[in-house]
Amino acid sequence: MKVSELGEFGLIDLLAEIAGKPKSESVIIGIGDDAACWHAESDLQLATTDALIQDVHFDLNDIAWRELGWKALAVNLSDIAAMGGIPRYALVSLGLPGKTDVDDVRDLYKGMMQLARGFDVDIIGGNITAAPAVMISLTVLGEAATQGNILTRSAAARGDRIAVTGALGASVAWLAMLKRRLKLSQRAAKALRDAHVKPTPRVAEGPALARCGVKASIDLSDGLLSDLEKLCEASKVGARIFTDRIPVDATVRRSFGDAALSLALAGGEDYELLFTAPAKIIDRAKRELPCPVTAIGEITTGSGVKIIDEKGLDVKMKNRGWDHFGGRAR
Amino acid sequence: MKVSELGEFGLIDLLAEIAGKPKSESVIIGIGDDAACWHAESDLQLATTDALIQDVHFDLNDIAWRELGWKALAVNLSDIAAMGGIPRYALVSLGLPGKTDVDDVRDLYKGMMQLARGFDVDIIGGNITAAPAVMISLTVLGEAATQGNILTRSAAARGDRIAVTGALGASVAWLAMLKRRLKLSQRAAKALRDAHVKPTPRVAEGPALARCGVKASIDLSDGLLSDLEKLCEASKVGARIFTDRIPVDATVRRSFGDAALSLALAGGEDYELLFTAPAKIIDRAKRELPCPVTAIGEITTGSGVKIIDEKGLDVKMKNRGWDHFGGRAR
To answer: CB 3.0-4.6 Å disulfide test: which of A86, A225, B170, B270 passes with B249?
Structure first.
């Protein structure tokens, strides 16, 4: 059945059923009223919004609806994690061509719910409308984990070490593989594809960083260099990172040789956390976070990001990350 | 200049400047970080999301960008008002074709800010991306005005009177005028156009209803009948409304003759509040609200909405409101 046959209200009923009753006892009104309503558990409330648009962020030939639902939520959870917050609720604003299959929308929601349940996030509201292309705009609401301690882009200070969670480059390597029609082993291809279509946001790690005493963080959505530049700009500092310390994803390193490093530096969509703090706090984070943490450089005076190779020389790079209108930016 | 020339980050900087610094002292982090952060002023937090999509909800030949910005925010403020809440913050998720003129986007934001400032709402975050058509998805965050008293669709009770704020039908009459190429006086045409492109949400009236002791409310976005049906369904009750009590907009009544009533009943996009309460509370609302309040019927047992004409006979109507995939619904 097409969504135009089921109609807006039938679709809302269906999706409300998949979303289920909110698990959080703090929710007073969920899906189905003019607005959602919940008891604040923390004095500090957080909100972020991000959208995925067909043929801009995804191609329906390359991603399953279920994966799309997962990813649309993942990118927003990542933003809350970057603030050191705990995600609680999501509002889903959907635009769908009338010819969209209802089963596909069901899968979209199932993918979203799969990730939401894993992190105790309730879908408490949304909106569905006709649109010329598939548009998924999510808002995620969260709360500060520890009273008063949120992580910001503007709190980096000279002398801080710079660190990242996990490994980088796999998500964009999947796109590079498709574009260049590279033949990788089935296993390698699957690893890259999973990184791109089903990223796992660092939901536990964000609040853990806040507990460790980290103050500055950003999530890696546009690419390490681009996002580090944004953090430096917001904090009015510069940065120096070392190519031989970048945690390039192992599959990317094996499959892309010399190109692996630039995929990791400028790739985008890794949804890892980049953070800065004094060396002692970075060491604490290395011990306490449930994922790899790698120190990759340091915050300096001045502005801009310098890339230093293993010989101590400055590296110049042309492409530094994604701009959603022009492709590569800055 | 086109948005594709200015780029995502240049556009974000520009729009952040138009949005300005948050006026609310409760905002800790506004535009420019991974998420917005604010101090909760009330225990009860509210959130709603609604989108306007080009050629589904608006035609750029018929509405100015400034009006579009106003309207995109207005429809969301209306949802918070329907809960009896006070709107505080907005997050703006924009999808724009690369060829969109930067000046148009500036106007869109200016229109949004004009309404936002009037009601002390701060734009504290958002997201911009390329899209095949203009897409404006807003999330508005609000708080309960009076601790514990929010209005819901599910609180209508048998014996309640049904009332609406303001007058109905002008917004859809503007569309009818365009479609049928009617020649109305300049003044009449302007009144209808204003109702459609620049609706003023009942931001003060929503919390006032809560203070009066009203428990059940819905905002009129899809049309009186359609929205009253939704309220009845959520409350598991029926309703009876009387055609001679419907506050049909004066311009619509003058310009559309016999068709005026059905425009008011099934029109949509009035953004008035429909609410139900015992007669005494409706009387209190009539005295205390800063706008006209009209009692139009009563809540009954059973289900569905009956329309009774001036002779006491049931009226049958085919078109009962908007479905965003199929046009007229239910």
So the answer is: B170
